[in-house]
Amino acid sequence: MSKDIATSIVRNTTVMMGSQVVTWVSSFVLMLFLPRYLGSEDYGRLYLAMSVAMIAQVFVDFGGAYFIAKEIARHKDRAPSLIADSIGFRMILSVVFLLILAIFSWIAGYPWRVQALILILAGAKLWEGPLAVFSSAFQGFEEMVHKSVVSIVERVFLMAFGVAALLLGGTSTTIAFIMAASTLLGCLIAYRRLRPFVPHLPRVNWKNVLGLMRAGLPYLMMAIFAVIYYRINAVMLSLLVPEQVVGWFGAAFRFFDILMFFPSILSMAVFPVLSRHVNAKDAVVQTTMKSLEIILMVAIPLAIGTYAFSGEIIATLFGAEDYAGSVAVLAALAPGLILVYIDFVLVTALIAMDRQRQWSWVALAAIPFSIALNALLIPYFQNVAGNGGIGSAIATNITEFGILLTALWLLPRGFFPKERFRQPLRTMVAGLSLILCIWGLASLQAPWPLQAVVGTGVYLGAIILTGALGREDRAFMLAAISSSGLSKLFVSGRSAKT
Questions:
Q1: Structural domain contains residue 496
Q2: Residues 328, 333: Cα–Cα separation, whole Å
Q3: How far apart are CA 474 and CA 192, in angstroms?
Q4: Is this model's pTM higher than 0.70 or not?
Q5: What is the span of the domain harbouring residue 352?
Q6: Residue 344: its pLDDT value, please?
Q7: Which of 71-80, 368-377, 431-440 is least confident?
Q8: Which of 110, 207, 312, 352 is at 20 to 30 A from 66, Cα to Cα?
């Protein structure tokens, strides 16, 4: 792969990793306050409203996250008209789904507090739609620093005003208003930072909207699946179990969701580059395989640590007494981290290779499967364990595994060189050494922070000794904290020998 590809990927990954430190800390601080100050029931209401609003967001976005970034990466001259038409389209969809959610929350019989929360967050879609368009445009231009700045401002604003509101006795309604305000601020900043790339936005050409709908439909189907898969849990739990159980699941899933930062960042950096070089098969294969190798080295220890220390994580972040039920949910979700991380890379490669139509039909067919699993497992675990969230977590993992198998099937035959599978196997061996280390220290009743620190050292030593951490991987990590060594990453011809 060329030096240009390597430089773009690492530059944008580095920028987003830096911003993620700030946004992750902001999210972490807010996560410490929200469940404790709201309580499991009120937090459950907020989590339910956020999940319902997120389902609406996928329709408002209409698959634009992938489509806009891909089109701008390939045809930058089309950016002004594409951005303007996409914003106009999304404004109409925002109004439509605001009405739909109002009707849905009334028909579902939600308490008035939940209905109010849903309407507040749904109303924010009027500016979240344009914000999503601006973010996708930055990705298409491969200028992720602007997307990162917007994310930092938005998250810091939400953290600062959210924590202050909670300390002053604010409720979930107060937090919902602050969430809406933070995205409005992000939208205004994103528009201002887009102007150097697109100085003037033309008027919306409504004749082009139908074309956008047709082009975005496969991406919409994929996005529908993703949101239903990740958010339908809360809706189904709200209909089948008490609000407290929804709060348990929401707390565990919130931590699980935060751990998605690394594959999300890497995929965003890789996607426009793959889209631009889609006709260079060797470049696509080498980049995808290297991304998988790096992703696995991060996912395996995170999954093991989340499972092993699920009780300590919940007690530290949310409180052991009020969120005791979240421990089992987080432990059940932990193995799915590995599957999710891998799926991020595989699906990104499929879409970059213009296989979104095939993937969209598979994703659409998987929706009833996910719903059926939740409908079966939530009542079962609610009856046997008093915690239906465990069943929803297991349903998530089963569906993720199905995604993995299907994505591998849709990739071109012989896509992955057989010799490249040795490195992931070495990473798994290093993961086994981490498990044995934690188990041994736990049997000696060592404090869990000591288990985590020693286990991390053992894991790092194991991936070096086994050769899982090759020269390219070390270069990637060094490039993440400095500008040196960019040209050494993803270089065609070397990676197959590592």
A1: no
A2: 9
A3: 37
A4: no
A5: 3-416
A6: 86
A7: 71-80
A8: 207
